[in-house]
TrEMBL record, chain B:
Domain 4Fe-4S ferredoxin-type: 321-388
Keyword annotations from UniProtKB, A to Z: 4Fe-4S, Electron transport, Iron, Iron-sulfur, Metal-binding, Repeat, Transport
Pfam families named in the record: Fer4_8, LUD_dom, LutB_C
Ranges of residues in domain LUD: 79-304
PANTHER family on file: LACTATE UTILIZATION PROTEIN B
SUPFAM superfamilies reported for this sequence: alpha-helical ferredoxin (SSF46548), NagB/RpiA/CoA transferase-like (SSF100950)
NCBIfam families named in the record: LutB/LldF family L-lactate oxidation iron-sulfur protein
Protein name: LutB/LldF family L-lactate oxidation iron-sulfur protein
Presence of keyword Cell division: no
């Protein structure tokens, strides 16, 4: 008998108390939790929460100016730009060299690049998370891992409120990376240290469409505006208990 | 190489919990390290959990998802196998530790490589994979900072989430200085004990391994049966390095980690980071489904591990322990863990969850003292994000531990209980026993505390300090003070 049959046989023997009429697709589980803990201003909340993880977050109409400023601030010389990243968001002139991943860059080249600039698939406000799905403008996973600096551009309409909304929108068949702030460890006396193996610096630029009122451009200021709105209006008891068919 | 389930799960040659705890409690430095760490993490967890007004509803859903996954475990594993295979992965089944080690060793050998990089994984620790690989001439490099600390120190993990919680910064600095060179790039000259400097030393030490090594071994936090998606939740980026850069990825996953659907992750990705590190979200979560052309390992193997889980599933009370998502919240709130540390449990799985998981996975005869390593205060149940009723399972396992010792010849404990029953049966025998007890207690106690009892009772008193019996009994006091009332 194969180990597969052995293990499956042991499981069936162990579960004799489960009635035959109960099957995996008839079982229901209570889902009384909230779909989102975000308030209306998901952009402000995202900026605040991403900044909590010591990512630097700015908000702009002019993506190219923001990217140019970031390149200058970090003195980037060799920058990985994945296929599909909008050209109009890149600094037009300057001293930087564009590294394309076609043909694929070797790990040594990635390791010595001074940074990477990408878009994202989605962003999650409540947790301050970027969702990367290796789509256009993001590239394969190694591109956002080996360079020590990651600049990520988020369109304001890509920000969703909370984790459930995000997972319902993404395609699980793609390689996914959820990024919440720069790499960190708390393994030594539980003291948080940023930057172990992933990029040690994460900058995020939230791009608003032209003509959109942004409020203010700094997350600190956005935070000051928010307390008038209760973060978690109502309570779960106000929602009907949904039962999710499985 | 590991033979039976218990071999690497329970550390051979370690003393039983009561003896190990006595030594640990006397170690002032260990207690200070533990107290500082558990208090910090407790405070963070409770703040972040309180931030979600529907925390209880999330727990209820998580518990229901897990319990239903377990009730149809065979079906979900078959679904998972089909989905992973369809996405380009290969699924293997391992009935016990020895078989899992054989499978992984064989897969590494087939690549022709002699080194692997590892993501922190409880399952591979449980099966003693590193030792098995070493026997086959394959070097396994732990890449999680705390696991690296444990590996360099030839130490054992003492916590599920932060395995080097028992070590402080200066101990870690000394270890890096003395041991890093034997494993690769040495620690920089004049390394300080600043955590940032220590993390930097680890980054440099491991970076060349990430760029060079062609095979990675990981565990899994979750796997979705409908899509075949596997999830690893981490902070440092070492997980991403291992899951992305090598050509071959071998993931060892306990069969209980399967979730019925990808959608279930929306519950667990809210609960796990808040419960374990007290963060809204951990820095990095990797989710992958089979293989992807041109991105990440092109050869993916998923090893489904039983190793005592089906035996645990058979116990209708004890099976709830299989719902554990290894967040370690129960360790951080446990008054016993805070004082004894993880090593005292003598197992890969310490703390309250270890006290219910280890005896079930390994067999109660291999860890008979663990169900008693608790005050039954219930803090672990309150903290558990999947609502495992750890006190209920502890009491259940205590009964099993006692039952397992029942034989044709009664144990000393059974005889004492029998004698106690006879003594309590009539007022006269009780009065006599109380008189003897009060007199004996006064003779044996020091400053009002009985530390060791004579004869066969010594075994009982070895792990307990008992207040000396009162001078008089309640019944004597009642007779004396109520005589005037005509009694």
């Amino acid at each position: 008998m194969s180990s597969r049959e052995t293990v499956l046989g042991r499981i069936r023997e162990a579960l004799t108390d489960v009635p035959d009429t109960e099957t995996h697709d008839t079982v229901t589980v209570p889902c009384a939790y909230r779909d989102s803990h975000a308030d209306a201003d998901v952009t402000g909340l995202f900026m605040e929460r991403a900044a909590d993880y010591r990512a630097t977050v700015t908000r702009t109409h002019d993506a190219r100016a923001a990217v140019t400023a970031a390149f200058e601030r970090h003195a980037l010389t060799r920058v990985v730009v994945p296929a599909g990243f909008p050209d109009e968001w890149l600094p037009s002139a300057g001293t930087w060299q564009r590294l394309c991943d076609e043909p694929p860059l070797g790990v040594q080249e990635l390791d010595t690049a001074s940074g990477v600039v990408t878009t994202c698939a989605l962003a999650i406000a409540v947790t301050g998370t970027l969702v990367l799905d290796a789509g256009a403008g993001q590239g394969r996973r190694a591109l956002t891992l080996l360079p020590d600096y990651h600049l990520c551009l988020v369109r304001a309409d890509q920000i969703v409120g909370d984790v459930p909304e995000a997972l319902r929108r993404i395609d699980p068949r793609r390689p996914l990376t959820l990024v919440s702030g720069p790499s960190a460890t708390s393994d030594i006396e539980l003291q948080r240290v940023e930057g172990v193996h992933g990029p040690r610096t994460l900058d995020i630029v939230v791009v608003e469409p032209e003509g959109q009122d942004m409020g203010c451009a700094e997350p600190k200021c956005a935070r000051a505006e928010r307390p008038t709105v209760p973060l978690f209006p109502g309570g779960p008891q106000e929602r009907p208990v949904r039962t999710r068919p499985r | 190489m590991s033979g039976t389930t218990a071999d690497s799960l329970v550390w051979l040659g370690t003393p039983s919990f009561p003896e190990a705890a006595r030594t640990a409690v006397a170690d002032g430095r260990l207690r200070a390290n533990l107290r500082g760490a558990t208090r910090t993490i407790r405070a963070r967890r409770s703040t972040l959990a309180a931030e979600l007004s529907d925390w209880e509803e999330l727990r209820t859903s998580a518990a229901a998802v897990k319990r239903n996954a377990l009730r149809h475990l065979d079906t979900h594993l078959i679904r998972l196998e089909a989905a992973v295979t369809a996405a380009g992965g290969t699924v293997h089944w391992a009935a016990d530790a020895a078989e899992a080690n054989r499978i992984v060793t064989g897969l590494v050998a087939a690549t022709g490589e002699r080194e692997v990089v590892k993501v922190k994984s409880m399952a591979t620790q449980e099966i003693g994979l590193n030792e098995a690989l070493a026997t086959a001439g394959i070097r396994a490099y732990e890449t999680d900072l705390a696991e690296l600390i444990v590996q360099l120190g030839d130490d054992r993990p003492s916590h599920i989430l932060v395995p080097a919680i028992h070590k402080n910064r200066s101990e870690i600095r000394d270890l890096f200085r003395d041991s890093m060179a034997a494993w690769g790039r040495p620690a920089p000259e004049g390394l300080s004990d600043d955590p940032a400097a220590l993390a930097e030393a680890a980054r440099r030490h491991l970076r060349e391994k990430f760029l060079r090594v062609k095979v990675a071994v990981s565990g899994a936090n979750f796997a979705a049966a409908d899509t075949g998606t596997v999830a690893v939740v981490e902070s440092e980026g070492n997980g991403r390095m291992c899951l992305t850069l090598p050509d071959t990825l071998i993931t060892v996953m306990g069969i209980e980690k399967v979730l019925p659907s990808f959608a279930d992750l929306e519950v667990f990705l809210q609960l796990l980071p808040r419960s374990s590190t007290g963060e809204r979200m951990n820095p990095y979560t990797s989710l992958w489904t089979g293989t992807t052309d041109g991105d990440g390992p092109q050869d993916f193997h998923l090893v489904l591990l039983d190793n005592g889980r089906t035996a645990t599933l058979r116990d209708t009370v004890g099976r709830q322990a299989l719902a554990c998502i290894r967040c370690s919240a129960c360790l951080n709130v446990c008054p016993v863990y805070e004082r004894t540390g993880g090593h005292s449990y003598g197992s890969v799985y310490p703390g309250p969850i270890g006290a219910v998981l280890t005896p079930q996975l390994a067999g109660i005869e291999h860890a008979p003292s663990l169900p008693f390593a608790s005050t039954l205060c219930g803090a672990c149940y309150d903290a558990c994000p999947v609502k495992i009723d750890i006190p209920e399972v502890l009491v259940h396992l205590r009964a099993r531990a006692v039952d397992s010792k029942r034989g044709p010849v009664p144990t000393a404990e059974a005889l004492v209980m029998k004698a106690a029953a006879a003594t309590l049966a009539t007022p006269h025998t009780l009065t006599a026993a109380q008189w003897v007890g009060a007199l004996g207690g006064r003779l044996l106690s020091r400053q009002g505390v009985l530390r060791s009892l004579p004869g066969p009772l010594a075994h009982w008193s070895r792990t307990r300090d008992t207040p000396a019996p009162a001078r008089g009994t309640f019944r004597a006091w009642w007779r004396r003070t109520h005589r005037q009332e005509g009694r």
